[in-house]
Amino acid sequence: MADTSLFILRAKEFHLFVLVYVDDLIVTGSCPNRIQEFITSLAARFSLKDLGLLSFFLGIEASRSAKGLFLCQCKYISDLLHRNNMHDAKAVSTPMASTSRLTLKSDWAGDPGDFKSTGAFVVYLGKHPISWSSKKLSVTLDPPPKPSTVESGSLRVLHVSSRDQLANVLTKPLPRNSFHDLIAKIGITSGAPT
User: Fold this and answer.
1) CB 94 within 8 A of CB 174
2) Which of 63, 113, 164, 171 is deepest in the core (most CB within 10 A)?
3) How far apart are CA 155 and CA 25, in angstroms?
4) What does the domain layout of the chain look like in residue ranges?
5) pLDDT mean over 152-177
6) 79 vs 63: CA distance, rounded Å
7) How far out from the chain centre does Cα 41 lie?
8) What global pTM score does this model have?
């Protein structure tokens, strides 16, 4: 799937990346001289204000270290907690109580009243998760596949253990160890890089 807000120029000697959001731009690349040439070219055609090195964009803070660029949403989360009068709330090791049972079976059409399941996704920047979402989904209960499709090999049915479902960290209450194992597999870390 193409990202219509990211423009990439790949030349033999350099790469240039331009990320556009409404009237904000992030310009970066492998050659500082080419980046400056591009910004100067834009400024000749448009009213442009260069804000310098990236520090904050779309609720994401950016800070640099010897290891690279660190992205976090600390300010966004702090603002969200203040807006909802939760700034004095105490931290917990998992976001949901793991002792409560939401259903007696898996979450596939987990609510027998509305036949909805909870689905989730994680958005990555490179190998680092930067956002996630989960919501209730409608599920259509189809009849099971015909045995002949399985026997012929045109449909392969595999069991995936619940402990290996990464989406569980976003959709189900989990014991602390399972929660921390899954967020580590997703790539979520706490704190700035050292």
Assistant:
1) yes
2) 171
3) 46
4) 1-52, 56-91, 95-186
5) 77
6) 19
7) 33
8) 0.46
